[in-house]
Amino acid sequence: xxxxxxxxxxxLAWILPSIAIPVGxxxxxxxxxxxxxxxxxxxxxxxxxxxxxxxxxxxxPRVEQVGPDRYIVYLTGQIWTFTPNEIRVPAGSTVTFMATxxxxxxxxxxxxxxxxxxxxxxxxxxxxxxxxxxxxxPMLCHEYCGIAHHAMWGKVIVEPRx
Length: 162
Ligand code: CUA
Known about the structure:
With about 160 residues, this protein is an alpha+beta fold. The protein is about 20% helix and about 45% strand. The protein has 1 helix and 11 strands; from the N terminus they run H-E-E-E-E-E-E-E-E-E-E-E.
């Protein structure tokens, strides 16, 4: 093989993967976004964080049953707790969290469940997941929010069906 041809082949060996890798990543992104429906937590609206006490539904943070096996949690994060801090649902429930912050930026992550969103003051986060397995799922703040950030956690208790 001539020397010029070898260099050409080396170049090709670098160029082809540098095209194939981004194309593969774009394909994976398209499949997960449109096929598997994986997306960023949606912004469900805006609220005035200073007026949460008078603003429905956050005036009464709670767990509400909205259908068979369907629940909605109206949740607020504030330094350094979640309200409600303990959520009980039966196994097999689909739970939507409508959540916001009363003060600074917090996070809402439920370990072992597909919930991971930021709680921004003024913005309503809306995330849904299904709890099939009974057990306790820690609900953590994963955005640094001050001196007692590490103590900001609650739990979701998924009760076995009798
Ligand atoms: Cu709230 Cu960290």
